[in-house]
Each structure stands twice: as structure tokens, then as C-alpha cells.
Write a sequence for this structure.
């Protein structure tokens, strides 16, 4: 049940080797080996509780926040060990951004939402640089046209889809290398979902994206690589087309054809 | 046929059950309404009693007398007396001669009764008047003077003005003079500024609340300065930083228990630690404020933690996901969002502290203090203790003043609660 080795010669951005996660006694993630390639969208699919979100949250160490969560094995980001003692979590999270399941803008203005990250990391030397970062991020998130006249209004006053794109703008404002998305469209309507999916495809040019999704159509639409998790194990990983047309493992086949899940 | 019958029977049973359920709901609503009405009724009775008793203390009977600033009676040199002379002059004598002049046919023995019509403190305004304008020396001016407390009570109808009634503190002769003064239009009721500008006194007509108000202000300032930063820091640490183990759990349980400890115990603690161990001054607002801080701290911590718990975890995740440190997450997001709740809790804790009496008795704030405190180190009274002291005084005139003091206390409590509501409204944010 080991992962299919990476055959592509493209550079791997994140490399997981024998990653295990324990929540107290519960073995939530078992011996995961997974390569995430740069500038790809990698979709993590699988039934609820299969460990895909757990794996996602290992990459920016959000699991640190959970009491008695324990991670073993090695996770490398561009050759740096994510769980090394010398790695600063704050720096790591600036390199690995995250977009959450439910849109969670700060109850501040749209501008301040995007500017918060650059401010705490001291990325702008003056106000005009900060303005530029904010505008660029909103532009890249495809939100600028809709909000440019009301940057001072509260971010929580936007629609759900706009809020999620604001969260994406906020994440890319700190110029991360990897963006983790934890079911970013599960709280959105189909039209907003389509916009976010389109955006994900555009972002691929500059960022490496890992997305957890419950929608297999979404995985098929937006991703180049797909990894299927089941009961804490990585069952199969491969090019998205191959996974959906010619799955190697009977479990994968069962899941994508809707026999369970 | 059978089916139809059972269907009819069951529908009847359903209707019956429904009726019962609605009846139960109506009963419950009626009980709830009754409980609220009862509570409001009692509150109404309380407020009406306090206000009807206390409102008369807002005015004070004054008597008009033609006062001659006679240099001889005053005991000062008739031409250009020095300020020192004027300060020590015998203004009581001036009042006495004015009274004697108003009722010339009163003989020697009865004069003492006559002098009691005017407050013993009435000489001070005369002194101020003459010192402000020394040119009045030798002239006669018509002056309104504070009446004695017994006259005041009689004029307000708290005691009978019929001669010979038992419990009447005025003699028949005094009542006669009072009637005579009224005929001359020389008696009136004026706004009782004394009540709001002076400190405590044994004489009801000279007793004021200002000393207690200032004392309460100093005490609460100390309380706020001590327990707001400590309380907020504690709740931030416990809520956001402390590991969840049995030690922090024990601390939590104890903080909750502290909120329920009788406040007089904190007074004893203050007596033992602040007074006896650290040797701080007795009756001082500084010590009172520290003791009150001990009492309101658990309230602030509990309110602060509840407010921080109410901040959605998604906001914390968003901040941390952007690479904010835990402290940045707290100061940039959690604290601003929980501030309305923290401030409300703080003001309610302060309001609680403002009304505390028992612990302050333990540290000597029950002393009779006339002077208005100039700093938190001066001996002082506070409002609830002033209420307690006046309620304990035998003079009839202190009854209405007790109610007036309660009104002032209630006014400040209402203001603080209003401030809490306004702060909550102002800082409230939706997400």
C-alpha cells in the first residue's frame, strides 16, 4: 500500500517520508509518503476522517495547536525539515499559507484584512509599498474589481464567495510558496465555487497548491495530481487523469465510482 | 369500520393531548409573567420608598434674619480689622443678637431655646460673607440661614407641629416662634447644597456626602488600576497560553470559588495583610481599593475568559495561519474582539465594589470622618459606609439623608451600568 513513486522529474516542493500523526492514543495518519510537486495543484481526497486534513495541517504545523497531537517521520519543504527544532513556526507559516473551510476574514476593513500579514512580517517599508502589496493580492485573488471602491468597509460584509477570495488574497499577500486549502468551497454556492476554482487554476502559475476536497468533480477539475486517503493511510497517488480514469487500487476505484465514502 | 373508529378515537386523543400541552404552556407563561411582575413590584416599592423618603433631603429649611455685623459683638476692631481677626470673630454672638432682636420679648431662660432655631453651623457662611466683603462691618443685612435639624423636620412635616404632641422635639415656645417667623415670610426651603458639598457631621443639617463620594472615587480608582490589568492578564494567560492540565484546572476552580467567598472575609484578609503586615494607613481609600480589587478580580477574570472564549477559533486560526505569533494573535485579534465583554465585566465588577460595605468596616473605613480626603492615603468614608453610618444615627433628620445617600449611590450604579451598555454597543462587532 505504498505510494506510487514519483516518476516525473519535476522538482518536489514538499516531501513527506513515513509521516505518522497521533492524537493521544489515536493513530490518525499512518506511514504517509507523498511528494508534492511545485506549481501543481495536488488534491487530497477520501472519505471523512481519512486523515487528509490532518496531513494538510502537518505541512504548516497547525497541528501544533492541538493538545497531545504528535507527529513523527520527516516532512521537507524545499529540503528544510519542517519539524526541525531550529525551524521557526512563524517563518514556516509565512512560507506555507492556508485557506480554511469556512471563510474567516477578520472583522476589520477589507484593506486591513489583506495588509495584516505583510504588516506583521514587516514586508512593506512604507505605506505605498503596503498599498501595492494589498492591491496586487486583491488583483491576483480576482477580487479587486469588486471591492476597489470600498476597501475601508468591513471584510465580514462581503458575500461568502467574496469572503473566501478575500481570505485567499490575505494568504497570498505574505508571498507564500505553498498554499494549503482545506475544503475552500464547501461553504460556497456553485457560482462562487466556480470562481474560486478558476482562481486556483490561475494561482498555480506562482504557487504550489494543496487542496483538500470532498468533491471528486472539483478534484478532477482543478488538480493535476490526486492523492487518495483511506483510514489514515495514503492508498494511491498519481496524475489526476490517471486516478479518475484508471485507478490502480480497488479502494480508489470504489471511492471514485461512489460505492462508498 | 373498525379502522375508522380507531382513527376517530386516536384523533380525539391527539386533540386532548394537544389541549393539555397548550394549557401547560399557558400556565408556564403565566407563572413566568407573574414572577417578573412580582419582582418589578418589589423593585417599584423599594424605589418609591427610597425616593419619597429621600427627596425631602434635597431641600433644607432656611430662616431669614436681619444680622448686624456689630464690631463689638464680633469682638473685632471697628476699623479695618485684620483677616485673622475676622476669621476668629464671634459670629455665633451676631446670630444670637439677631434672634433676640427678632423676638425682643423672649426672656433670659427661654433664649437658649430660641437660639436652637438656627443651625450651630450657620456662623460659617456669615464669616465667609464678611471676609469676602469687610465693608459690611457695622451694617445690617438680611441673611438666609440654615435652620436647625428639628425645625427642618417640623417644616417638612416629619414631626408634628401641634404643641404638646409626644415625640415632638420642639418646645411649644419654639413652635410659636416658628409660626411667627412664617407669618413674617422669614422661613423657606432652599436646595440643600450642604448635602452635596461637605463631609460628614454629627449635626444632620451640616452633614454632606461629598467626602464619601470622593472617598468612593479614590477607592474605585485604586481598584480599577489594580484589578483591570491583573484580571485581563490572568484571563489572557489562562485562556490562551496556559496548558490545560490539572494545575490550571485547579486554579480555574479556585478563581470561580473566590467569586463566591463572602466579602467580609476579604476585609479580614485586608486587615491582616495590608494593615497589620504592610502597615498601611487605616481607613484609607488605598487599602479600601486594594481590598475591593481582591473582591472584583474573580468577576473580571471570569467575564474576560468568557469573552475570549466567545471569539471564534477560526479567527485565531486565520491569524496563526498567516504567521502571527501567539501574542500577536491575542493583541491584534482576540483582545479587540473580546474587549466589549471584558469592559462590561469590569464595570459590573466595579459596580459591585462600589456597593460593598462589610469588608471596608474591617479595615476601619467606618470611622467618623469630617474632612474631605485629598489623596487615597487620607482617612475617608465611602458611599455605602456613609449610608450605614447615617442609618445608624438616632436623629430623625438622618432618616431622609440616609435615603438621599442611597439615591446618590443608586445614581452612580445606574451610570456605571449605562456606561457598560454603551461600551458594549460601541465596540460590538459582528462576524
Amino acid at each position: 500500500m505504498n505510494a506510487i513513486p514519483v516518476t516525473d522529474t519535476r522538482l518536489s516542493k514538499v516531501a513527506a517520508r513515513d509521516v505518522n500523526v497521533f492524537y493521544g492514543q489515536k493513530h490518525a495518519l499512518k506511514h504517509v509518503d507523498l511528494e508534492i510537486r511545485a506549481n501543481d495543484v495536488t488534491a487530497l481526497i477520501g472519505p471523512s476522517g481519512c486523515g487528509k486534513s490532518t496531513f494538510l495541517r502537518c505541512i504548516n504545523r497547525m497541528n501544533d495547536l492541538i493538545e497531545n497531537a504528535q507527529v513523527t517521520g520527516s516532512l521537507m519543504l524545499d529540503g528544510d525539515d519542517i519539524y526541525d527544532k531550529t525551524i521557526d513556526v512563524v517563518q514556516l507559516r509565512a512560507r506555507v499559507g492556508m485557506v480554511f473551510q469556512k471563510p474567516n476574514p477578520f472583522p476589520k476593513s477589507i484593506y486591513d484584512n489583506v495588509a495584516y500579514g505583510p504588516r506583521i512580517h514587516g514586508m512593506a517599508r512604507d505605506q505605498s509599498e503596503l498599498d501595492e502589496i494589498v492591491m496586487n493580492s486583491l488583483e491576483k485573488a480576482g477580487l479587486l474589481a469588486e471591492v476597489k471602491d470600498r476597501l475601508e468597509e468591513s471584510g465580514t460584509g462581503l458575500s461568502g464567495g467574496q469572503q473566501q477570495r478575500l481570505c485567499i488574497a490575505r494568504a497570498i499577500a505574505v508571498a507564500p510558496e505553498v498554499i494549503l486549502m482545506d475544503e475552500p468551497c464547501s461553504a460556497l454556492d456553485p457560482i462562487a465555487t466556480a470562481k474560486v476554482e478558476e482562481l486556483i487554476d490561475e494561482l498555480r502559475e506562482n504557487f504550489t497548491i494543496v487542496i483538500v476536497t470532498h468533491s471528486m468533480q472539483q478534484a478532477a477539475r482543478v488538480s493535476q495530481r490526486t492523492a487518495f486517503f483511506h483510514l489514515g493511510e495514503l492508498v494511491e497517488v498519481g496524475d489526476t487523469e490517471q486516478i479518475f480514469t484508471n485507478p490502480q487500487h480497488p479502494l480508489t476505484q470504489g471511492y471514485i465510482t461512489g460505492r462508498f465514502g | 369500520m373498525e379502522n375508522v373508529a380507531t382513527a376517530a378515537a386516536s384523533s380525539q386523543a391527539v386533540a386532548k393531548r394537544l389541549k393539555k400541552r397548550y394549557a401547560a404552556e399557558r400556565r408556564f407563561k403565566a407563572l413566568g409573567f407573574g414572577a417578573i411582575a412580582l419582582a418589578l413590584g418589589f423593585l417599584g416599592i423599594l424605589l418609591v420608598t427610597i425616593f419619597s423618603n429621600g427627596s425631602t433631603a434635597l431641600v433644607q429649611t432656611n430662616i431669614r434674619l436681619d444680622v448686624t455685623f456689630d464690631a463689638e459683638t464680633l469682638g473685632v476692631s471697628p476699623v479695618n480689622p485684620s483677616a485673622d481677626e475676622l476669621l476668629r470673630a464671634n459670629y455665633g454672638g451676631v446670630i444670637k443678637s439677631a434672634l433676640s432682636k427678632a423676638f425682643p420679648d423672649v426672656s433670659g431662660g427661654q433664649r437658649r431655646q430660641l437660639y436652637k432655631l438656627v443651625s450651630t453651623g450657620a456662623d460659617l457662611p456669615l464669616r465667609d460673607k464678611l471676609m469676602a466683603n469687610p465693608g459690611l462691618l457695622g451694617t445690617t443685612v438680611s441673611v438666609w440661614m440654615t435652620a436647625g435639624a428639628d425645625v427642618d423636620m417640623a417644616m417638612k412635616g416629619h414631626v408634628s407641629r401641634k404643641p404638646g404632641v409626644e415625640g415632638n422635639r420642639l418646645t411649644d415656645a419654639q413652635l410659636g416662634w416658628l409660626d411667627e417667623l412664617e407669618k413674617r415670610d422669614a422661613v423657606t426651603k432652599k436646595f440643600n447644597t450642604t448635602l452635596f458639598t461637605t463631609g460628614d457631621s454629627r449635626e444632620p443639617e451640616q452633614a454632606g456626602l461629598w467626602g464619601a463620594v470622593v472617598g468612593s472615587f479614590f477607592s474605585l480608582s485604586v481598584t480599577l488600576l489594580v484589578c483591570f490589568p491583573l484580571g485581563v492578564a490572568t484571563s489572557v494567560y489562562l485562556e490562551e497560553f496556559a496548558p490545560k492540565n490539572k494545575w490550571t484546572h485547579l486554579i480555574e476552580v479556585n478563581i470561580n470559588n473566590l467569586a463566591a467567598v463572602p466579602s467580609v472575609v476579604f476585609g479580614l484578609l485586608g486587615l491582616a495583610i495590608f494593615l497589620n503586615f504592610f502597615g498601611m494607613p487605616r481607613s484609607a481609600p488605598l487599602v479600601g481599593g486594594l481590598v475591593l480589587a481582591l473582591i472584583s478580580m474573580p468577576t473580571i477574570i471570569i467575564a474576560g475568559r468568557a469573552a475570549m472564549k466567545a471569539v471564534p477559533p477560526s479567527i485565531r486560526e486565520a491569524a496563526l495561519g498567516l504567521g502571527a505569533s501567539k501574542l500577536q494573535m491575542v493583541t491584534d485579534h482576540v483582545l479587540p474582539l473580546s474587549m466589549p465583554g471584558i469592559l462590561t465585566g469590569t464595570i459590573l465588577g466595579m459596580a459591585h465594589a462600589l456597593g460593598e460595605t462589610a469588608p471596608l468596616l474591617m479595615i476601619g473605613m467606618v470611622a467618623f470622618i469630617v474632612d474631605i480626603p485629598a489623596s487615597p492615603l487620607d482617612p475617608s468614608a465611602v458611599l455605602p459606609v456613609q449610608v450605614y453610618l447615617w442609618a445608624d444615627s438616632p436623629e430623625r433628620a438622618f432618616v431622609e439623608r440616609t435615603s438621599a445617600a442611597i439615591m446618590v449611590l443608586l445614581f452612580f450604579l445606574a451610570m456605571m451600568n449605562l456606561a457598560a451598555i454603551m461600551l458594549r454597543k460601541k465596540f460590538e462587532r459582528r462576524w
Remarks:
- The beta strands of chain A are 12-23, 26-37, 41-45, 69-77, 80-81, 96-99, 178-182, 208-212, 225-230, 233-239.
